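# step 3/5: fold
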Amino acid sequence: MATERLAKFQNGEALNEAFEIKQHRVKLRKSRCYTRFMRSKNLFIIFCVIYSIPSSQGLSQRTLHGEMLIVTQGPLRETLLRRGEDFEPIPPAAQKLIDSYPNFVTGFADNYLVFKDRTKLRWDDGIKNKSNQQLLDEPDLKDMFNQKYPVGKLATPPAQNFDPGRVRNLAFFEKIYGSTEKQVEKNLVDITWCPRLVGQKITVTKINGVDKQLMLISKELDEHPELKKYLTNIGGTFTWRNINGTSRHSMHSYGMTIDINTKYSDYWQWACKCTNENVTIKYQNRIPQLIVDTFEKHGFIWGGKWYHFDTMHFEYRPELIN
């Protein structure tokens, strides 16, 4: 039976000798292969409607229908990509969401990101040449990756409107963390920030292990007394609110964002004394690179990498870093 001929591959090498891809090529014939679900971060699942297996495998030469292959992102995947006629590859950026939120996102199909609860969000709305304001106000999932977040030290100040991570599809984050204040609150926990240097209780989400990542960051920074002034008086974590001057939810609403000491921080709205996104502003920053590097190592992006700088702001966005 077709279901008995399931083959699993690790790094492009066969675990089932009947499907040993290097010695006996699996020949796709008029195949129609579609990606459907990602059950694990390491598995690439393909439904092949039709393909044939050479008789030298010890199996009769025949066509199998409805066979499912589970393969990794290795050489076998490339073989199938070359041989499949109507193969629907997962966009690399969508794959990052699947890998970064495996407890919630299960796959990609027909231009939709698929969630564990079987709901879907559209990947690409097809609208081209969106203005900067449109990207902020009405982004699709694909738009969140329109600028690459630069890990590490900035060589130069960000160019005008270079804001990697500021474009956020709020429907996605509501699926992950909660769409109401009460839903988010159900998953909030208190942790102690820098027990030796600061000892401040802060409230963050436990979803995606954000609390655990912040505890790791806290432990590392707690070893640097020279950084104490930046780490005391945490400016904020969970607060259900909108971004000042907008109707968009702040990422603080989801409990996965932390603002460090505002006394030593810089914010574009403070600099221009306005909320006008089109204003010309001069970049400012006083946050040491060691703090930035530590947060980035644990999946947090930094608002100091933005033209519209927010140097106190660290936000858990592993899909933009990994």
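# step 4/5: annotate
Confidence is low (pLDDT under 50) at residues 1-74.
# step 5/5: archive (pending)
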